[in-house]
Amino acid sequence: MDGDRIFAVVKNGQRADYAIPDRPYLVRDDPPLTEKGMRQAEIAAEKICEVIGDINDIYLISSPFLRCIETASKLALIKNIPIHIDEGFCETLLENYFDSDILEILNLNTKITEIENELGVKIIYNPRENRPDYPENSDESYIRVIRSWERVKEEYKEHKCIVIVSHCYIVNKLSKYWECKRNLSYDKGLCKLAVVRYNNGYEFLFEPSSEYCKDN
């Protein structure tokens, strides 16, 4: 594709760490968003649309964790596009986070139809495609994220815009890889967002921040 491309990465909204009665497919370590988190996801989707303008040619990627899929669903609804699950952008699979391979038991593995129906979106998921090995350490996770990004950037170069919905670690690492000079560790806010324009180099259109969403 000739000309500039737009890339964005955003963290999920507020997660619910305990079962919610009307969300029956809650799995330990794979909670849904709270109602506040769903509103944050709406604000994030609106902010992305504001920054990227009238671009509709968007390839939307989500981590397989439910909180990320729900966050991605708000942009999917606005733009009428599917959500593509990519396990290469999943949470870091540290042993002290997860006592077994969490990717084997995520809600998405058994409840994809229910999730699609509840959110009103189409989810495209090929289990085990690009799946990292469990367990991994932080260095392995970083290499995995950057390799995943370079793969996606090349595989979907026909798209004007790529948006990734993932986790705080991935937002920070991709932002640094996109040559952000700021200290990113202090901002652990929900729906932290970064957007860049790309044409043989990265130029930030929206530097990594959750400030736009902090009061919600």
UniProtKB/TrEMBL annotation:
Pfam families: His_Phos_1 (PF00300)
Coiled-coil region list: none
SUPFAM superfamilies xref list: Phosphoglycerate mutase-like (SSF53254)
Leader peptide range in chain numbering: none
InterPro entries named among the record's database cross-references: His_Pase_superF_clade-1, His_PPase_superfam, Phosphatase_SH3-domain
The protein's name in its UniProt record: Histidine phosphatase family protein
Organism whose genome encodes this protein: Stentor coeruleus
